[in-house]
């Protein structure tokens, strides 16, 4: 793929990349909304995608929420979508476990919503004598849980993580995400996860392609983070589009080894090229 980068002040898709995109994989917070507020033009962009005969899905690393939570949130914000439009790192982890550890007993460090999703998909969850350890963004984390997961990791069990993020953005700033928990576990049990599923890693993007049936060369990953969203596209055969409506700045782009194919101020600016 091309190394083209389009700066926001130029804002031109000089190689006609967007004309060939059939599926947009969209990060959520910082890309289409901030908290419960749409980023300007986001809803119109989603409508334009579908009006032009293309498709989109929302792709998130956040494993503290299941797909129904996102469906309900988007509905409150005036967008009615089905759960098929939501792809999470939790779902991708379930997919990976079914392929790689079928029927194995799993200790899950996760909240009630993720636990329910794992059980609904037939994953065998246990608190004692697991065969696999899975760590997720557990918003109900306790010291007792931390002690238990460190014990299991220290035993040498296969150790899988839903995603790598150190912090989760909120309307009031950042809160510790699962990557920070991995640092705690490493300090105690001297191990990092054997495999991390979420963006920017291949397992997440393989699951995306499996779910959507899309052609990698006609799929664009759109997001506001260089090290997850843009790296996910760059490293896995998709086009990558950075929007400057969230975390990353042009200074970050200049300093990063990961370069997007295209850069826009926001997804509103992409519409003219569809």
Contiguous uncertain segments of 5+ residues: none
State the helix count: 9
Strand content: 15-25%
Name given to the CATH architecture of the largest domain:
3-Layer(aba) Sandwich
Rg, alpha carbons: 19 Å
Walk me through the structure.
It is built from nine helices and 15 strands. The chain is an alpha/beta fold and 274 residues long. It has two domains: 18-61 and 201-273, HAD superfamily/HAD-like (Rossmann fold, 3-Layer(aba) Sandwich); 101-196, HAD superfamily/HAD-like (Rossmann fold), CATH 3.40.50.1000. The strands form four sheets. The protein has a six-stranded parallel beta sheet with strand order 5-4-1-13-14-15, with helices on both faces. It has a five-stranded parallel beta sheet with strand order 7-6-8-9-12, sandwiched between helices. Strand 13, helix 8 and strand 14 (239-243) form a beta-alpha-beta unit. Helix 3 (89-100) packs across helix 7. The protein is globular, with a radius of gyration of 19 Å.
